Amino acid sequence: MTTEPSRRIQRLRRRALRSAQTAAVASPSNAPDAPDAPDSTTAPRVSFRDAPPLTTPVFEVGSLSVFYGDHEAVRDVNMTIGDRQITAMIGPSGCGKSTMIRCFNRMNDLIPTARVVGKIRYHGENLYGKEVDPIEVRRRIGMVFQKPNPFPKSIYDNIAYGPRVGSFKGNLDDLVEETLTRAALWDEVKDKLKTSALALSGGQQQRLCIARTIAVKPEVILMDEPCSALDPIATAKIEDLMEHLAQEFTIVVVTHNMQQAARVSHRTAFFTSDVDVKGERHGRLVEYDETERIFSNPSDQRTEDYISGRFG
Ligand SMILES: Nc1ncnc2c1ncn2[C@@H]1O[C@H](COP(=O)(O)OP(=O)(O)OP(=O)(O)O)[C@@H](O)[C@H]1O
Q1: pLDDT by residue for the chain (312 residues), tens digit each?
Q2: Where are the stretches annotated Disordered (predicted)?
Q3: Ligand 1: which of 98, 104, 146, 252 to mutate, judged by most atoms within 8 Å of the beta carbon?
Q4: Does 50 map to a domain?
Q5: DSSP secondary structure string, the chain?
Q6: What is the ipTM of this complex?
């Protein structure tokens, strides 16, 4: 006889699987930026992205905790991020995704109350070592934010700014064209390079910000909810761009949109927060695995509950 809990678990597993399959095939034009995938039994099966093995780690995170003052916002994270893979971080609001992604390029250094404890190795070297220059870290590990934030300058100067500051010696016109082409924006802006970047649409501005990031030849691109301010068509363009850029760059993306995580990423980290005996809330990494496994057969009940829309 089937017991009640096992029936419930089977039901949840079926829901989660259907949800993930639907999520991954849904085009952004019909997938709103929300963590609720349609529960359709007729969703076609999908192929998730194959996750290459983690043989070449870019980041190795060990026992990492982040404090704001006395508050331990993220507790004891261990994970390895592979070279030229897209790693998605998902989880309910306040679980520490942004705090975590900011650790990868030492952006938390800019928050006076923030303190990072534990290890992050970047290509085997301590990212937080005394000899490491955080400015150089941020050049090699670029970041794209939730809200497009182009400089109030021309399109051309937005791209040229970083290379100029870095004393770029080559042909700047060529670099601007090449960078805008790689960011899938050249055809749309090539005739108005001297006009203000602020006159572009939100989606174009975000692609410009991605172009500005890659103009200084980073190795890693961190994206903190890069599509949350964009419409579905602009979102689709950014997702296409991410897929393309992953051939060259390691990408870590925070997203509230599970469909997006399922569509674009090779691996997914699910965070949540729990409350300790003193009533304090701490973000934790619950499960980190190949995206297909997270969405179709997660090993932790909390992951299953989240991706099947039961909380968050
Ligand atoms: N600058 C800060 N100073 C103090 N506390 C902060 C700061 N930034 C974040 N926190 C706290 O750290 C915890 C994690 O926040 P964080 O923004 O990293 O979560 P998140 O998962 O990215 O949330 P969301 O999905 O809503 O953006 C929260 O309790 C938040 O209040």
Answers
A1: 444 445 555 555 555 455 555 554 444 443 434 444 434 444 444 568 888 888 889 999 999 999 999 999 999 999 999 999 999 999 999 999 999 999 999 999 999 999 999 999 999 999 999 999 999 999 999 999 999 999 999 999 999 999 999 889 999 999 999 999 999 999 999 999 999 999 999 999 999 999 999 999 999 999 999 999 999 999 999 999 999 999 999 999 999 999 999 999 999 999 999 998 888 999 999 999 999 999 999 999 999 999 988 776
A2: 1-52
A3: 98
A4: yes
A5: ---HHHHHHHHHHHHHHHHHHHHHHS-GGGS-SSS-----TTPPP--PPP---S-SEEEEEEEEEEEETTEEEEEEEEEEEETT-EEEEE-STTSSHHHHHHHTTTGGGGSTTEEEEEEEEETTEETT-TT--HHHHHHHEEEE-SS----SSBHHHHHHHHHHHTT--S-HHHHHHHHHHHTT-HHHHTT-TTSBGGGS-HHHHHHHHHHHHHHT--SEEEEESTTTTS-HHHHHHHHHHHHHHTTTSEEEEE-S-HHHHHHH-SEEEEEEEEE-TTS-EEEEEEEEEEHHHHHHS-SSHHHHHHHTTS--
A6: 0.98
Nearest CA to ligand 1 atom 12: 73
97 lines ligand 1 (CB under 6 A): yes
Cβ 94 under 6 angstroms from ligand 1: yes
In the reported structure, the alpha carbon of residue 142 is separated from the centroid of ligand 1 by a whole-number distance in angstroms of: 20
- Distance (angstroms) between ligand 1 centre and the Cα of 94 equals 5
Residue 90 Cα to ligand 1 middle (Å): 14
Q: Does the residue 156 lie in any domain?
A: yes
How many domains are contained in the chain?
1
Question: 119 is in which domain, residue-wise?
Answer: 4-307
Query: Would the pTM of this model clear 0.80, i.e. be above it?
Result: yes
Residue 312 lies in a domain: no
Look at residue 163 and tell me if it is in a domain.
yes
